[in-house]
Amino acid sequence: MTGPIAYSPEVAAAREAGTPLVALESTIITHGMPWPRNLETARRIETVIRDEGAVPATIAVIEGTLHVGLTDEALSQLARAENVAKLSRADLAACMATGGTGATTVSATMIAARLAGIEVFATGGIGGVHRGAELSFDISADLRELAETPVTVVAAGAKAILDLPKTWEVLETYGVPVIAVGQDVLPAFWSRRSPHPAPLRLDTASEIAAAHVMRGALGLPGGQLAANPIPEADEIPAETLAPLIEQALADAEADGIAAKSVTPYLLARLYELTDGRSLEANIALVLNNACLGAAIAREIAGLRDRVAGAQIDPL
C-alpha cells in the first residue's frame, strides 16, 4: 500500500496534458545549501526546467504527505524549516506513517518519481561508496536504487568526496548504465574530468532518452546515470580540490562525524576551505543538469508519442 501523494497544481496540470516532467530532490534545499541561497537556487532550477519546455516536480514529505511538486509558498517554507529529516529508501515510509516532514535524497526521490510516473530526475551528484567503507560499510542507498528503480538520473557524477573507483565498481556490479555525456572520462562533480574512463558515452539528450526507452522495452530493471560534466567556466580542477577534500575528511574524522551527517558536514567544510567557490560550482552544475534533464524528458515524451502513433492502424 502506498502512502498519500499530493500533486502541486502545476504538476497535476502537466500530468493531465502529458507535458514532460523532471523530478527534483529536496535535500539540496534543506541540507545542501544555506539560507537564502537554497531558496534562490531551488527557484532558479525550476525556472531552467520550465524554460526548456518541461515542468519541475520538487519532491518532499510534508506532515506525512508525499508532495510531488511544491508551490512557491511550500518551497519557501521548506527552505526555512529546521530539523527536517533526510529521507532515503529505509525511512521514507516511516516518516510518512508518523506524519513527519523530510527532504528526499536521490533514492527517495527516485521512488517518488516512479510512483508519479516521472522518468527523469535531475540532481547535483549521487551518493556512493564513502572513503573507508571497507571498515565502516558506509555505502549510499542511491546505488542500489539506481539498480532497481527505472528513472534516468542526471548528475555531475558522484560527489567527489566519495571513493569514486569503488562507487563505479558497485554500479558496474549492479548493472547500472553509467553514461558520460559528451566525453570519454567520467566527471567528478565539481571537476569536469577524472582519471576514470567512462563505461558508456552518449553525446545528446535524444541518445540518452532512446537508451532509457530501450531499457524499458527490454524489461531491464533499474535506471541509468547520465554523468553530465559541470560547465568548463564553473569547474574547480581536481588537483585543486584533492588536498582540500583530504583536509575535510580528516576534520570529519576528528569531529566524530558519521552516517547521514558525513556528506552535509563535508560540503560545509569544503565551502569554508574554498572560500565559497564550491557552492558556486555546485549551483552551476545543478542548473546544467536541470537543463539536460528537461531535454531528455522532452525526448522521451517524443519517443513515446511516435511509438503510440506507429501502433495506430491507419485504416
TrEMBL record:
Keywords: Glycosidase, Hydrolase, Lyase, Manganese, Metal-binding. GO terms for cellular component: cytoplasm. Substrate binds at residues 86, 106, 140-142. The keyword Cytoplasm does not apply. The active site is at 25 (proton donor), 159 (nucleophile). Mn(2+) binds at residue 138. One of its GO terms (molecular function) is metal ion binding. It catalyses: D-ribose 5-phosphate + uracil = psi-UMP + H2O. It is an enzyme of class 4 (lyase). One of its GO terms (biological process) is nucleobase catabolic process. SUPFAM superfamilies: Indigoidine synthase A-like. Its cofactor is Mn(2+). The keyword Chaperone does not apply. Its EC number is 4.2.1.70. Binds 1 Mn(2+) ion per subunit. Homotrimer. Catalyzes the reversible cleavage of pseudouridine 5'-phosphate (PsiMP) to ribose 5-phosphate and uracil. Functions biologically in the cleavage direction, as part of a pseudouridine degradation pathway. Belongs to the pseudouridine-5'-phosphate glycosidase family. This is Pseudouridine-5'-phosphate glycosidase. The lineage of its organism: Bacteria, Pseudomonadati, Pseudomonadota, Alphaproteobacteria, Rhodobacterales.
